[in-house]
Amino acid sequence: MKKIRKHVTGTGYGMVQCVLLLMLISMSVFSQNVAINTTLAPANTAAGLDIDFPAQGFLIPRVPLSSTTSHQPLGDHVAGMVVYNSGDDIAKGIYVDDGSKWVAGAAAGATPGDMQYWDGTKWAAVTGGLPGQYLTAGTGGVPQWTGSSSGYATLSTSSVTDILTTTATCGGTITDDGGFGVTARGVCWSTSPVPTTSGSKTTDGSGTGAFTSSITGLSTGTTYYIRSYATNISGTVYGNQITFTTN
After folding, report:
1. Distance from C-alpha of 33 to C-alpha of 25, rounded to nearest angstrom
2. CA distance linking residue 133 with residue 145, whole number of Å
3. Superfamily for 115-245?
4. Residue 161 CB neighbours (<10 A)
5. What is the pLDDT of residues 170-180, one digit of tens each?
6. Residue ranges of the domains in the chain?
7. Three-state SS for 174?
8. In this predicted model, what pLDDT tens digit does every residue of 81-133 receive, in sequence order?
9. Contact 82/60 with Cβ under 8 angstroms?
10. Based on CB atoms within 10 Å of each CB, which residue in 54, 148, 165, 180 is the most buried?
């Protein structure tokens, strides 16, 4: 009798396990949304996936992208794909695929006073101005600082044109030398936001007015950040930042 009872009990336990498994499968198939948390709270009814951890973050895939135009090392461009670029070929950060290329997330600030504006396709950075300057709308509504203060020059960055695989054309306009002659001017660029003259740059004469800069040595299919600059006895100041991507 003991053996019979044992057999019946074991069979009943197995049946319960099967029923529970079927219930879980049914819930997975017919559930409208999913919650991942430690409190067993249900998912928000408006969310397909509701992740809630009070002291932990959500870690997205870290991928070494080679350029904004190449889908490698992923298999293809997929609109809506989100990754964090961990490589050094383009600026590190979050990128979203629009179906044909990678689009960088919001530009990062580098110094106090830096701001962001929408350039028509993405968020771009404009650096903080100098004491006494004021913000105005430049070409295409791009914000730029005007008015000279403390002897610094006032300038803006021109649109980038003639973009090829490794070269492009840019420049700027210096409207005020701040009371001191501009001794150096040009543009500087980088694959990271807010480039300075400590990196890649051109040298395009001196004085006020418009100037043109020929940019060389670029990498194919890469997004760059570029600013004009002007130097006088008071120091170096920069124009508004513009972004472009080589072919």
Report:
1. 14
2. 6
3. Immunoglobulins (2.60.40.10)
4. 11
5. 999 999 898 89
6. 2-52, 59-101, 115-245
7. strand
8. 999 999 988 878 889 999 999 888 766 666 677 888 887 777 777 777 776 67
9. yes
10. 148
